[in-house]
Write a structure and sequence with these properties.
It holds the Pfam family AGP. InterPro entries: AGP16/20/22/41 (IPR009424). It contains three helices and no strands. The protein has 73 residues and is mainly α. It has one domain.
């Protein structure tokens, strides 16, 4: 009985190993990597997002407050 369990584990391991090395699995991983690269490229497309715009407005307002404080004193 112990050898039958070991044989089943070996067969299961070999099937898992073959699945990882199969061309279909590699194509799927490559497709996922390409999709993630497209998402990253879209994020860094040069168009500012809302957070960047808000931060820029904040910097402009702080600079304006600094100039006004300097002028009024």
């Amino acid at each position: 009985m112990a050898s039958a369990g070991g044989a089943q584990e070996l067969v299961l391991f070999l099937f898992m190993f073959a699945a990882v090395l199969s061309p279909a699995a590699r194509r799927e991983v490559a497709a996922e990597a390409a999709q993630e690269a497209n998402i990253r490229r879209r994020r860094s497309s040069g168009r500012p997002d809302g957070k960047t715009i808000d931060q820029g407005i904040g910097y402009i307002l702080m600079a304006l407050a600094l100039v006004l404080t300097y002028v009024l004193h």
